[in-house]
Amino acid sequence: MSVTEVSNDITDAFPLRRGWQRDLIGVGIIIIAAIAGYFLFPNNLALLTRIIAILLLVLSLDLVTGYCGVATLGHAALFGAGAYAAGIAAVTFGMTEPLSMVAIGALAGAVAGLVSGVVILRGHGLAQLVLSIAVIHLFHEAANKASAYTGGSDGLSGIAPDPILGLFAFDLWGRTAYVFGILLLVIIFAVLRILVRSPFGMLCRGIRQDPVRVSAMGASVKASLIKMYVISGAVAGVGGAFNAVSTQVVGLDSLSFTNSAEALVMLVLGGTGSLYGAFVGTIVFVWFEDIVSAANPFHWLTIVGALLIAVVLFAPKGLYGTAVTLVERYGRGRK
Amino acid sequence: MSAIFQVDRLKKSFGGLDVTRDVSLSMEKGDRIALIGPNGAGKTTFVNLVTGHLRPNSGRVLMGGEDISRFNPMKRVRAGLVRSFQVTRVFAEMTPEEHVALAILQREGKSGRMAGSYHALPEVMRETRAILETLNLVALAGIPVSEIAYGQQRLLEIALAMALRPKVLLLDEPAAGVPHSDTYLIENALKQLPDDLAVLMIEHDMDLVFRFAKRVIVLAAGEIIFDGSPRDVTQDARVREAYLGSYAHASSAA
Lengths: 335, 254
Description:
The structure holds 2 protein chains of 2 kinds.
Chain A: H1 2-13, H2 16-40, H3 45-67, H4 76-91, H5 98-120, H6 126-145, H7 147-150, H8 175-197, H9 199-209, H10 211-216, H11 221-247, H12 257-270, H13 276-295, H14 300-314, H15 318-334
Helix pairs in contact in A: 2-8, 3-8, 3-11, 3-12, 3-13, 4-5, 4-6, 4-11, 5-11, 8-11, 9-11, 12-13, 12-15, 13-14, 13-15
Chain B: E1 5-14, E2 17-27, E3 32-36, H1 43-51, E4 58-63, E5 66-67, H2 73-78, E6 81-83, H3 96-107, H4 122-134, H5 150-163, E7 168-172, H6 183-191, E8 198-202, H7 206-212, E9 215-220, E10 223-228, H8 230-233, H9 237-244, H10 250-253
Parallel strand pairs in B: 3-8, 3-9, 6-7, 7-8
Antiparallel strand pairs in B: 1-2, 1-4, 4-5, 9-10
Helix pairs in contact in B: 3-4, 3-5, 4-5, 5-6
């Protein structure tokens, strides 16, 4: 008798379906927001497309920082590697098929993830952060020096992707690029939600909370983190490649420290360790930056800074994390 | 019967300070041993040396005859040598159910799976539930660990150790930090450990030690000064001296 009661207790406490439903709702919201964006800002699709590319970078950062607890200011290295790989494939090797460009970007991002993961994970805490800064500077300098392939500080231009599947050409208004980006985003988001929910995702969350305990369970902390870094690199690489495809140029700024730091700021703004926070943070940050820089071109950075201080002081879990806490508290209060 | 676990002349010094001097001991299946000693005797250092968290200056550690001295902590766990921690180490944001399920998945080599969920693995769910039931943690199965009482977190440490199905279990002060009135919970949990498991427990609570242990080892200043039955330990002159210093001899106390 008590056994059946117990089993009910557990399934009630952890309904399998509820998590899935939440993710389906999440995907639904992304699609609805994407459609709304398409019709509400038809002249601003370039900005929305840029948000998608950055979002992929921030999602990928959330995997290593939010889920594994690795502090890094060098994550743009993975994004830039994907962007340059896709761009060079198109310009130098004539591979202008957009899906293969994205695949090449994912591969290059994964390799960059492996390399920077191996370097960054040698250190802990502050040393780790410094190593990550060193990594991004090295990647930046490598791209700068290899100007025969990358165009150096002039950037890599002349990327002319073919129509997707031979059917959908990239148009002047950026509609094709936008729809392509949304599709990539939805697929990657769905895959990542499955990943973070999996046993491996749970292991990574454990590593963030107590690596000593994880190794006392007989699991390899280092190997798991490097695996996650490679996956994260593939995601960031897709973001970079998509950026190359949609803007048709790759600049050195995609491999910059600033890019890395901004991605981290967006993640913290939205909230780490949920993937949803990455969405909230990126959209709010880029959109806010866009509005404020148009309204007040002289002091916009000051205003962005003030926003960040306010969020970090009053909503330390980020906008999404704080909202979830409030909703949970409200829900408990009603019971 | 051959020893399942053997420590052979383990030595460790920090600078000029010898914290472990020639410590040797062996354990057999089903052993229940208490390792006691005054503060600073080197008990936790001993555990850290054995589990590979510290590197000894010399000496060997063997599991079932196999030399595991060169294994890192992770490989020692996989060989069946599991420890608990003096100060609870758990994942604050995860629930007891997730903790135990993760340990089982790890033991089964499934913790690297990148899709699916342990909810969908009936055998993992069944075992998780059984372990949580054994330790009376079912009611808390779905609550983040940061919100449950410390005593229950201590029970969860034992649950994790059970889930890993070790051959040898080292418990570093399982009752530390638990109010004396709740020690029986820990004691009951320890009774649930499998009979053929070899357990070495470090503990200061003597009531617990005498009820639990069939054999007591006393460590003082890095040396084993007593290894025998719980009945004899209180009578041993060196043990009394280690604990009480000169007060052990009533005549010199004045």
